[in-house]
Amino acid sequence: MFDKVLIANRGEIALRVLRACRELGIRTVAVYSSVDADSAVVRLADEAVRIGPAGSRQSYLNAAAIVEAAKQCGAQAVHPGYGFLSEDADFAEICAGNGLTFIGPPPQVMAALADKSTARALMRRAGLPLPPGSVQTIATVEQAVAVAAEIGYPVIVKAAAGGGGRGMTVVRDPAALPRAYTRTRAAAQVAFGDDRVYVERYLTAARHVEVQVLCDGHGNGVHLGTRDCSVQRRHQKLVEEAPAPALPPETEAAITAAALRGALSVGFTGAGTVEFLLDDAGRFHFLEINCRIQVEHPVTEMITGIDLVHEQLHIAAGTPLRLRQSDVRPHGVAVECRVNVEDPDRDFVPTPGRLDRFQPPGGPFIRVDTHGHAGYLVSPHYDSLLAKVVAWAPDRELALRRLDRALAEFDVHGPGVRTTIPFARRVLADAAFRAGHYTTALVDRLLAEDPAVPAPALPAQPAVAAGARPHRS
């Protein structure tokens, strides 16, 4: 195992990694920008190195500064968390070239999976079903028009190098395709330095279901079940749960087997997520593989009891996978809400500022991952995620009630600061969501409703008849 790990990130995920390292007896190095000097991870780390000013390109995306900090402090490995450099194959290669272990897949695997067109081809070869569309990138408008005509509208034009919900344009009208194709290519060039795109059928009533996998460098792998991430706005997830609700057992078995097969087929190592779309007929289609720990990983940890960051560290250190598939025994239901410093009533615009009050919820089976505290200054320079509130229960109904109770307790106030908590409670109270029969269209439907109308309360828990014994799971 490593003696010292540098954490190449900030916020709640940096704290999450630090705590896992401390539990394993690993010393930690935090890197920070000038505006994060008083952050919790800087205070708790064994060592801390300032790597640049507030702008992420000069700090958390500055690969040279991060590697130099690791070398100066004698770190043996770098944990990238999620976002920033976590899926940057060049950064992983730079780490390796400087004698540092990058806690993630090999650079060549990351590069192949980061290219969505290449990833689609590799997964098709592994036998995973793809959405109808082009496997290779589309070089001309004429080719895009021909593919769209063959698969039918609506279609989505996607950047081959895209990620994080960027580089995608939905097209419902054939007349709009040429312009959408040209604009998506131009936007992809600016955002990713790569203008290649492909076209696939857009599934309008789809569920977004993903599978957590763990694979080592010795050819072993396990899956840790499913998560549903369909509650999302502009492809950014807001609410996640595990396991995915209302999934037929045969579909769950097929999708988890396909996910693990796909990951192993490309030599994946570490913790990864294989993402799928389920259409209204229940068929699943490969979407992408994420080569990092996910924001929503706590829900999987809550139902399996497996610490994913611990496993990442052991795998990166060369230890054979410590789990067999029979060791993975999910129990109960966990649901996570992301608390972002955004105003849902103003199209989710970020509302950074100082937190005068910050009191997270507590109680049985509630987990809060956060870097916030009273007096904390939410910076406009970074992602607006402030906290993740997770509830576990033996059944989904109680998990939803427990999470709603926790969100109602969460006290976050500051001048001009707004959060997504009220909107998250609207999601939890929605009838389709409560029934477990919802799709990626849920958020758009809620936003189209009158935001001034308060979210309905969760329905009353059925009373237990006199003399009856309550059901226990």
Biggest sheet details? 8 strands, antiparallel
User: What value does the average pLDDT take?
Assistant: 93
Q: What would you report as the Rg, rounded to the nearest angstrom?
A: 22 Å
Please report the distance between the alpha carbons of the first and last residues. Answer: 39 Å
The CATH architecture of the largest domain comes to 2-Layer Sandwich
- At the fourth level of CATH, the homologous superfamily of the largest domain is ATP-grasp fold, B domain
The helicity comes to 25-40%
Counting structural domains, the number is 3
Low-confidence stretches: 462-473
Percent of residues in beta strands: 25-35%
Count of individual beta strands: 22
**Count of helical regions:** 15
Protein name: biotin carboxylase
GO molecular function: ATP binding; biotin carboxylase activity; metal ion binding
EC number: 6.3.4.14
Enzyme class: ligase
Can you put this structure into words, describing what you see?
The protein is α+β, with helices and mostly antiparallel strands and 473 residues long. The protein has three domains: 4-103, Rossmann fold; 132-201, Dna Ligase, domain 1 (2-Layer Sandwich), CATH 3.30.1490.20; 207-448, ATP-grasp fold, B domain (D-amino Acid Aminotransferase, Chain A, domain 1), CATH 3.30.470. It is built from 15 helices and 22 strands. The chain has helices at residues 11-23, 40-44, 63-73, 89-97, 107-114, 116-125, 141-151, 177-192, 249-265, 297-304, 308-316, 396-409, 421-429, 431-435, 442-448, and strands at residues 4-7, 27-33, 47-52, 77-79, 101-102, 155-163, 166-171, 197-201, 207-215, 221-233, 236-242, 270-278, 284-290, 333-340, 342-343, 349-350, 353-354, 357-359, 366-370, 377-378, 385-393, 411-413. The strands form six sheets. It has an eight-stranded antiparallel β-sheet, with helices on both faces. A five-stranded parallel β-sheet has the order 3-2-1-4-5. A three-stranded antiparallel β-sheet has the order 7-6-8. α4 (89-97) runs antiparallel to α5 and α7 crosses α8 (177-192). 48% of the residues are buried. Mean pLDDT is 93; it is low at 462-473.
